[in-house]
Amino acid sequence: MLSDKHEWLSQAADNQQVTPEQLSALLQQPELQQTLQRYQLVGAVLRNESDSVLPADFSDGLANLLADEPIYQLQNQAGLMQRIKGSIRQAANAEWFKPAAHGAIAASVALVAVFGVQQYQQPLEQELAMPAPILQTRPVAGFAIPVSLSQTSVDSRFEAQEQQAMQEQQRRLQALLQAHRQQVRVTDVQHNTAHPEQENREH
Amino acid sequence: MMKWLFGICSIVVLSILQPASADETGWALFNKAQQSVRQHNFDVSFVVLKGGQAETYRWLHGRDDAAEIEHLIPMFADGVDIVRRDQQIYYLISERPSLVTHGDSIKELPALLFEEPALIRTLYNAVAGSSSVIHGRSAQLLRLSAITDERYHYWLWIDVETGFPLRIDTLAEQHLRSENKALEIWQITHLRITPEMPDNLAQLMKVTLPLALPVEVKVQQPQQHQLGWLPSGFQIVPEPLQVPQLEPEVLSYWLLSDGLHQVSVFVQRSHRLPTQAYRDGAVTIYVQSDPQLDVTVIGPISVDTAQRLAASVR
């Protein structure tokens, strides 16, 4: 309805014909007259007509309007504030430590994702004795698959089972890595350890 | 004869004093870097390179007379905003309860920049190196060489003008060979130090953040196994918080610390898989498997040290 009203007013501002009813409404309603006046002013400015001078205080008025506008933060600060509010509504950090909460591991995985876990080939004794470089096998779908298994096995079923077992191992290790990181986060080491100058302990 | 004797004595004294002086220059540079990340108001971005993987973060820090605040923003999916206000650290996750911990630094930032210099001096020697240019800024190299073999070395490049650390490499060995690349590189990609606190932080300063609820402390069960060896300078943290989701699977657990690095040792029933080691940046994940037990060692130590630790479990 509103758009219909504006459409015929806009056409009227462009000197197009109006119906007798529309003309009658325009003559009776000051609101429509003001709207038509604004449309004509806009048109005159767009056409760059010399007699379409804006009111002298137009720029001052616009500046005042802008000054009253709030400052919008176009960063993720708003999202962070939402998260803060959301987290306050919930029961703080207790859930992080509940064994039944499956989210506990998921949350920590989300916290620091494990990237680039590289396979270290099962070492020979003599290789362990020296600082051998880590064998850099690219992970497959996020998991490292041992080269030896994929190359030497002839029984495909056996190979599939072994690979499944290795993937399960990867899952366990990622859980342990997250548990380790969680410990580092929550442990105030400075208050939990004595002076670091401790003698090497050999049993 | 006396002249010769005097000359020899002078050379001996100078040769003793010179490294000590060089060391002090290095430690002065190190202190400058630590003060820089504590004292300045800044808005920086950095990237952590682990092998072929990169993680990017934005890090804001501010302080006024009364309080200190910093905000670490991971710039990747599923990242968690971390806010520290003085001694409280908040991990803020969408639609999940927050984790609130206590400490004077965010653990996801390089611990080296925040631990007591006196402690770090017990573990490392500091040697100032050459100057170079990083991202158009003049930087001074500082080598922190581990005193014993168990720890990795750190090379820091420190901004000459501000003292801000521009890059930190973690190295297994210090010899510059092509195959001896850094295990992990932490590098500033954007640096903006301002006289005033960043606006975002000023807002965060006033926001009500979640309260830290007391953590339920369980009675520590006696360990089923014994750890027979500790790397030099490490000791067992007496009461690590338990991680309940692992309780059914973990038979024994130790958290070791030298004050700067932490190492976890987990003992589980054997899954009868080969002994393996993995790496996530500077963190080694070593699994020793035998027919009875799996011992997993996780921490910023060499595979050799991890292997020795695992082998010492009885």
From TrEMBL, chain A:
Residues 131-186 form the Anti sigma-E protein RseA C-terminal domain. Keywords: Cell inner membrane, Cell membrane, Membrane, Transmembrane, Transmembrane helix. Residues 184-203 are annotated as: Disordered. It is a single-pass membrane protein. Residues 194-203 have a biased composition (Basic and acidic residues). It is found in: Cell inner membrane; Cell membrane. Transmembrane segments: none annotated. The keyword Membrane applies. It comes from the Bacteria. It holds the Pfam family RseA_C. Its main location: membrane. Interacts 1:1 with ECF RNA polymerase sigma-E (RpoE); this inhibits the interaction of sigma-E with the RNA polymerase catalytic core and leads to a decreased expression of sigma-E-regulated genes. Interacts with RseB. Belongs to the RseA family. This is Anti-sigma-E factor RseA. The lineage of its organism: Bacteria, Pseudomonadati, Pseudomonadota, Gammaproteobacteria, Alteromonadales.
From TrEMBL, chain B:
CDD domains: RseB. This is Sigma-E factor regulatory protein RseB. Pfam families: MucB_RseB (PF03888), MucB_RseB_C (PF17188). Keywords: Periplasm, Signal. Belongs to the RseB family. InterPro entries: MucB/RseB_C, MucB/RseB_C_sf, MucB/RseB_N, MucB_RseB. It comes from the Bacteria. Residues 220-314 form the MucB/RseB C-terminal domain. It is found in: Periplasm. Residues 28-200 form the MucB/RseB N-terminal domain. Residues 1-22 form the signal peptide. The keyword Signal applies.
